[in-house]
Amino acid sequence: MIALDSDECLALLAGVPLGRVAYTRDVLPAVRPVNHIVRDGKIIIGAGASPWLTDAVRTRGKTVLGYQADEIDPHSRQGWSVLVVGYGRIIEDPDRIALYDPLVQSWTHTVNDALIAIEPDLVTGMRRTDSSNT
Asked: Which domains does the chain have, with CATH numbers?
């Protein structure tokens, strides 16, 4: 296993369209798959038909979110995994919404309830490139 620095982690995230957002719902952990893009060091996610996620972030103004994505070959077991933890905020700026919304269309083909920007505080990742120890 090779630890990845935050720049490489964000570059890897930018290369895939789907990940999982972790948040708190009714005092319990919840995880949803969502589409994302990486812009200006932030992870922008579309909360497609996710009223619980949207409400959690909107109610608190900012909410600690986890975001994880990976690309792992099931046969060779080679690949990478990245985890980002940071504050999520609803994007309110109409120009940013118009720019980002077409880029983070929900994998469920639903309209985004909101766009959320996650500002990373903690970015960690790992890569496995050698399958000889499987």
From this structure: 2-125 (2.30.110.10)
pTM (predicted TM-score)? 0.88
Reported as a single tens digit per residue, the pLDDT across 26-52 is 888 989 999 999 999 999 999 876 778
pLDDT tens sequence across 89-130:
999 999 999 999 999 988 888 888 889 999 999 999 999 987
Long-range contacts of range 100-106, CB-CB < 8 Å, 24 or more positions apart? 100/37, 100/39, 100/44, 100/46, 101/46, 103/37, 103/44, 104/34, 104/35, 104/36, 104/37, 104/44, 104/45, 104/46, 105/35, 105/46, 105/48, 106/34, 106/35, 106/46, 106/48, 106/49
